[in-house]
User: Fold this.
Amino acid sequence: MRRLLYLGVAVCVAGCGPQPRVVGQLATAHPTPASAAAPGASAPANAAEEAVLGPGGMTLRQEIGAVIMVGFKGPLTPAIVADWRQHQFGGLIVVPINQNATDPAAIRQLIQSVRSVMAHPVLTATNQEGGTVCFKETRVSCMAGARQVGSQGPAAVQSAMTSMSRGLKALGFDIDFAPVADVWDGVDPHLRERSYGQNPQTVAQDVAAAIAGIHAAGIYAVAKRSSVQTPQTRDWVPFQAAIASHVEFVMMASSTPLQLLRTELGYQGVIISDELQRGALSPEFPPPSAAVRFLANGGDMVIVSHDIAVADATYDAIHAAVLNGTYPRAQLDASVQKLLNLGLRYMP
Assistant:
């Protein structure tokens, strides 16, 4: 009987760099210093909180690691491996600017190296929508983008997504961060090629087809909202279709719609943030503070894509927020349980 999943997520996006390798002997990980308690919080109370086990028998620190996706720049080094061993981050995100890998073999090695220091199976992911959003170093054929393939109908969308996703699955990925579920407003140049169109019903059909294609390849799908504007009624139609298609994740570029997803659409799955280091959620807040706000407002997972030091600071901020009550432990438990509920359906 397979072990209960402690989720880790690896996300690789187009154009990575040098082949990943662990150089020299691995550094020994040291216990993370306890985060500073809030004024008035007693040491015994904090110790008691640390001792309480959450879903799957996970410790508080393991749960905190589980709700953070982390990326780093350059090759995998002993220091980064030690940090991963210590924090057991719930996700590994590899983006082109980080220059982590140059070819399929290097990508496989990167995933295996991170998996080797995790206590449980690691869920890996990448971002391949087709068109201009491709992971070229995988050598997986990148099909036409949403605007082009969408004009051919849902069957073509599903076929394209299945083809790409099978290639990604063969490399060890378990998630594709696709499709974009926004309805294009006819103006935003960022979404012009990545949205399935301007008609909500048409976009909804194509989003459902894309999710079906990803699922057919045996990996998880993510309905992404790229627009930071407050959603209008028509914009929810594709998300309703995504939810009906059992999408596992919804990615938000703004914290505004979080509660609307829950209350208006009844979505009970995992809500994941967009990249915090580029100020996707709250430009006025640094990533650690933005992460706490996102999670406390109902999000389930946050992404820190480029710097392990920022990820460590985010980890410490979440830990302190749990101890001082800013981010209730019950909410953390609920988010971790959602991740565990994904099960091993698409795991190796």
Summary: Residues 58 and 100 are 30 Å apart (CA to CA). The two ends are 14 Å apart (CA to CA). The beta strands are 9-12, 68-70, 91-94, 123-126, 175-176, 220-225, 249-252, 270-275, 301-304. The first strand starts at residue 9 and ends at 12.
